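1st attempt posting a full record on here, be nice pls
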Amino acid sequence: MRNEFVKKSARPTYERFIMTSLKQFDERNTALNRAEWDTRFKQLIRISCERGWFLNPIEHPVYTFPTSGVQIIESTSAEIRDWDAASLCDAYKKVYQDLADSWNGTVNPERMRKQPSEMSRRIKDVAEFLGANLVGICELNQKWVYKGSKVPQKYAISIAIEMDKDLLRNEPSYLENTAIGIAYSKARFVSTILAQYIRGIGYPAFANVNERVQEIPMAIDAGLGEVGRNGLLITPEYGPRVRLCSVTTDLPLSKDDPIDFGVQHHCEKCEKCAKACPAQAIRYGERTTEINNISNRKGLLRWPADCEKCLIFWGGDKSERQSCSKCISVCPFNK
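the predicted structure (as tokens):
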């Protein structure tokens, strides 16, 4: 149950910071996807892959098995160990995408017909049963679909998965990576099974985990939270300590309202995430329309994160450094 400080809003709180007509963002320019064509980032991400995503389980016990490798370890671990380190990123992306596409199955020709409000309750119950911590529904804004992607469905079901607070306090470490990896594993599981359920009741549906659509603005539209200084979704229940996924569908649903619980005002005063960031990738001071590099979207008044600095910190050292969650763990909204 959300408290009295969480208010429904007629419009998402980011709208007043849109300075110009937004165009779809090119997914190739996100920090991780730049490894496909940017030689600097290709090397950095491969270093990160080699260190953290697929490690020898003899050296690193299962209970601390790191990061996103958890998502596909059961079905592909033997195959992955045969690939050389230089191919890990390409292999990871291939297996991950094949896994998602394999769930794009046949739609049942016999449709379940319920009122949108009743169907929305049913969908939220199913998602929570599968492991979702937060679920919201919005109409899909095509501006949040990546350039070149085709997502013709009308609605988006936005889902947040909580990351373990105690594990995240151990950053940077394999314990922190485990919290991230488990959350992503749950996100893939919940979204793909929910999409399959919707297809089973007669409507097209597609699962997304950071592909095809921009999860954060979509989650804001669906009433899960607001965006903070750190560039992440901040929720009333868990702060920024969530990973996001979604299901897009034509199943008739009732929309949720965006919310306002003071994040914009708070982040104007609080700079804890900026001060704690070891890469100094988070802006101090007031919002700006200036961008750091092509991994930032133009036309917004905000605190744009410098994804290049963040990624260089991950992969720019020979140590056993792992992904960093300082901007998440120090956020006061965790409490």
